[in-house]
Amino acid sequence: MRYIFFISLLYLLSGCFSTTDANSDNDVDVSIIKNPITLDHLKDSNAMPKIQFEEDFYTFGELIQGEIIEHNFKFTNIGTAPLVISEARGSCGCTVANWPKKAIMPNESGKLSVKFDSKGKQGSFNKKISVFANTHPAQSIITITGNIIIK
Fold first, then answer.
1. CA 6 distance to own-chain centroid
2. Residue 9 belongs to a domain
């Protein structure tokens, strides 16, 4: 009885440490999950959305420490397919972006709102916001800058 138990236990444990992938023949490129239109092998730019920001850089000038400031970056889909922004994230927790959750159709415009919290900060700042969409390349960068003064 112990012998059967021991063999069964070894059999079960060997399955946990297997180095072969059962789905190795059906591996999916993760870029198709994150960004289905921008696969490496599909680079027909005529069949893709294209994001064009009116400005990709904005300076707030001087602000007083503790202020929360906001700027809207306007953009247009100048491509021929619907534009979907999957994520927009700031370079730190003090910078938060809000983007349209619905698809932006060709020739339509939208806005990406960026809020910056200057609490506990001083001096000049330069924050980058990474915008991920179904474009090629998948990532666009917009930037905010300014100078925080202590009142």
1. 49
2. no
Is residue 27 included in any domain, yes or no? no
Distance of CA 102 to the CA centre of its chain: 15
- Kindly report, residue by residue over 22-80, the tens digit of the pLDDT: 443 333 333 444 455 544 445 566 789 999 999 999 999 999 999 999 999 999 999 99
Confirm whether 8 is domain-assigned: no
What residues pair up with 112 in beta bridges, in sequence order?
Answer: 73
How many independent structural domains does the chain possess?
A: 1
pLDDT at residue number 9: 56
* CATH code for the domain in which residue 97 is found: 2.60.40.10
Residue 141 has pLDDT above 70, yes or no: yes
Helix (H) or strand (E) holding 140: strand 139-149
SS3 label, residue 29: coil
Residue 13 domain flag: no
Can you tell me the distance from the alpha carbon of 73 to that of 128, in angstroms, rounded to the nearest whole number? 13
Q: What is the DSSP letter of 133?
A: E
**Span 132-145, mean pLDDT?**
96
Cβ-based neighbours of 50, under 8 Å, separated by 6 or more: 77, 78, 79, 83, 135
Containing structural domain, residue 75: 36-149
Which helix or strand (DSSP H or E) is residue 13 part of? helix 2-16
